[in-house]
Write a structure and sequence with these properties.
Elements: H1 7-24, H2 32-47, H3 53-79, H4 82-96, H5 99-114, H6 118-126, H7 138-185, H8 197-221, H9 224-238, H10 247-258, E1 260-268, E2 271-279, E3 282-283, H11 287-318
Parallel strand pairs: 1-3
Antiparallel strand pairs: 1-2
Helix pairs in contact: 1-4, 1-7, 1-11, 2-3, 2-7, 3-4, 3-7, 4-7, 5-6, 5-7, 5-11, 6-7, 7-8, 7-10, 7-11, 8-9, 8-10, 8-11, 9-10, 10-11
Subcellular location: Cell membrane
Main location: membrane
Membrane topology: Multi-pass membrane protein
Length: 319
Amino acid sequence: MLSGLSFFAIAWLMVAGVVLDLMLGEARRWHPLVGFGNLAIALERRLNRGDSRFLRGALAWTLAVLPLAALAALLIWALNIQAAQAAAHAVMLYFCLGLRSLRDHNLPIADALAQNDLPNARLLTARIVSRDTTSASEVELTKASAESLLENGNDAVFGTLFWFIVAGGPGAVLFRMANTLDAMWGYRTARLLQFGCTAARLDDALNYIPARLTALSYVLLAPGLEGKRRAWRCWRAQAPAWSSPNAGPVMSSGAGALGVRLGGAAIYDGEVEHRPPLGAGEPATGADIRRAWELVARATMLWLAVACACAALTRYVHA
């Protein structure tokens, strides 16, 4: 592992990072990712102009990500005290995780729908997705929230944990910065198509293995043997239809595990986009948002349990 930590240490630092995230949630002030987002906005405004926008986008990605990832690694090295280094790894992971944020942003939507408060549900959903929710129905709002939960479970949790295993705190920092740039620059618009190409492709590469491990986690946690088979079939049949190589496996397997239908038409910038279907079964309702959150939470516990079991096994083997 690039972090230099033992697997035993990594496993328990993963637990510490997740516990910190669930206890504290997002930092309300001076969150590092908010500052990084402001840096990304400034770089895009400064460099996304004139000719050679692809090269300018690659330069912007390099200037945004690599110095800060190197600074995180340098901080770990400079502490030079094992306990302080361990604490720094755990804190970096905490700042990169978004498990509680997923809960805090999505469960209020489920509560609003349970109270038949569509205006509030539309407002809350508009805060987490880019699609138009102005006149969205309960089914459309549920699809938006559940899809966001399943996909961002990979981005904000499992991808972060994967790269933490590989390279400790600096690995988690690098992944989340790359993922943030994709979320900001990776749109296929006239302005960002060339400039954001590097951000989109590198995020695809960094997410390739985590996305498939996430999809596998959703399959394993589907209820019953038939639920697992359904989640697997949805993954294999539906994921190739999605333009994103990573969102397809994650959302199709997750929808299959829940036994609901997601995907389909959604309105973006006033235009109806007909997206491929996801999952199987009945149309999603408001209660399925909570079920999607529970699937992501249980998958997180599965990852931690597997990591701790592997850590205990390696310690036993080397004892």
